[in-house]
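Amino acid chain
________________
===
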Amino acid sequence: MAPPQPEELRKPSPAESREWTLRFLQALGVDESLPASAERPDAYSALIRALLSSATVSSSPAPRVSCTLLVSSAVTNSYNTLHGGAVAAVAEAVGMACARAAAGDKEMFLGELSTAYLAAARLDSEVEVEGQILRKGRSVVVTTVEFRLKDTKKLCYTSRATFYIMPVASL
């Protein structure tokens, strides 16, 4: 017979695990409904676009998209710096704009996104976001997006995204 174990070392039963998980999810608000604004078909894109301003698109010699991001309290983490998820979402949006400038209105999807978080952009700071094409092929477009503080030009974040162009059906 095994010796009795202290309470904290005892493995919880499946029922206890389910109950703990349910309480955890309820504390996060899983039971609450989303606001009506989130139910719009393009709510996510509208949220990301609202963060960006002063967008310019140049096409020569290679497509380049530049814009400004103001770090507001809506997109900061508990350290009052730009949230990593917001960085990734903006990188995807700017990268997609770059890819569309290069490939036109073809159907494409994001295949890979990698981001290096090098420094923090603090609350109320302005960040210059610039995206450009690294490679454009028949079925793939690779972009890079850099985030620099506007006043010091310090590089905060850099992202690389791979977009795959959907093949045209030949029926």
Notes: Residues 52-165 form a domain with the Thiol Ester Dehydrase; Chain A fold (CATH 3.10.129.10).
